[in-house]
Amino acid sequence: MSLSAERVVAASNAWTWIPDNATTEATQEYLLVRFPDYFEHPFELLRFSPPEAPAAAEASGAPGDALAVAVDKVLDRARRFGLPDLYWWVRMDSPPEVADLLAKRGGTVEETLDVLAVALTAGAPELLQPARELALRWATDVSTLRDGTQVGVDVFGGSMPPEDRLAEEAKRDRGTVASGDGGLVVAYADGEPVGSGGIAIADGVARLWGGAVRQEARRQGVYRAILAARLRYGAAHGATMALVKGRVETSAPILRQAGFTAYGQEIMYRVPLP
């Protein structure tokens, strides 16, 4: 069964994750999130829905340029957080002119993700077996969660959360893995953690996140093994679609080989806040 582009785009735009220990500022126009310092990008804009009418621009003395005024309004609010940069996600529902406006304000592309999806109505697709023997574990205890988190830190950046946070998340994931809501899979080779990847199920969509493989273990099927485990889990717990936002340079080509189709892109801009 094929997926409609409208469904995939809507599911992608609806996917916003905020940890319970983050600080947010939300209005009808935007969502700013201040993540804990151990995140790779501690300050992000996750949603931007500016008004279509030019009233904001007219009120500011810049007739006909409501979008630029709305962008500057967000940046002015962001500066109050006292951080050097804002990581602004230009999503598929963002106005197309936003990218140029951010570039004019010093923004540079930090990351480009393909939005990819595959139907799970007929079950999880069969993937090639890894080239090496792997043990896969769900991170329902602190030790396994620590291993999987460290893989993500090594691949994506950031730093390890404090030990008490790991304990809270392991306790939470014991419940979510069992209930079918998702969790983190960690791959081990010869007893060493070499890869990890998460899944969260919402509204019949298996959201795949954080797929990472250590440099020395790449090109050996580790990513495919973690992907296959998450797809089986999603199909077994009622998901009819798997959705993932994959880096164009690394995971996106593997996902296409696994049967995923790309429906668009999300681009993160790093915008300085002088």
Give the tally of β-strands. 11
Task: Give the overall form.
Answer: globular
Low-confidence stretches: 53-58, 60-64
The overall pLDDT, averaged over residues, is: 94
User: What CATH architecture of the largest domain do you see?
Assistant: 3-Layer(aba) Sandwich
The percent range for helix content is: 25-40%
Cα end-to-end separation: 50 Å
Which class of the largest domain in CATH terms? Alpha Beta
CATH homologous superfamily heading of the largest domain: Gcn5-related N-acetyltransferase (GNAT)
**Coarse structural class:** alpha+beta
Secondary-structure element order, N to C = HEEEHHEHEEHHEEEHEHE
Tell me the fraction of residues in β-strands, as a range: 25-35%
- What's the story with the biggest beta sheet? 11 strands, mixed
Strand adjacency order, main sheet: 1-2-3-4-11-5-10-9-8-7-6
Say what the CATH topology of the largest domain is: Aminopeptidase
**Rg estimate, integer Å:** 20 Å
Helices, by number, come to 8
Descriptive account of the structure:
The model is unreliable at 53-58 and 60-64 (pLDDT under 50). A hairpin with a 3-residue loop joins strand 1 and strand 2 (30-34). It is built from 8 helices and 11 strands. It has 2 domains: 5-113, no CATH class; 122-239, 3-Layer(aba) Sandwich (Aminopeptidase). Strands 1-2-3-4-11-5-10-9-8-7-6 form an 11-stranded mixed beta sheet, with helices on both faces. 33% of the residues lie in helices and 31% in strands. The chain is globular. It is of the alpha+beta class. 37% of the residues are buried.
Task: Please give a handful of descriptors for the protein shown.
274 residues, alpha+beta, Aminopeptidase, 2 domains, 11-stranded mixed β-sheet, globular
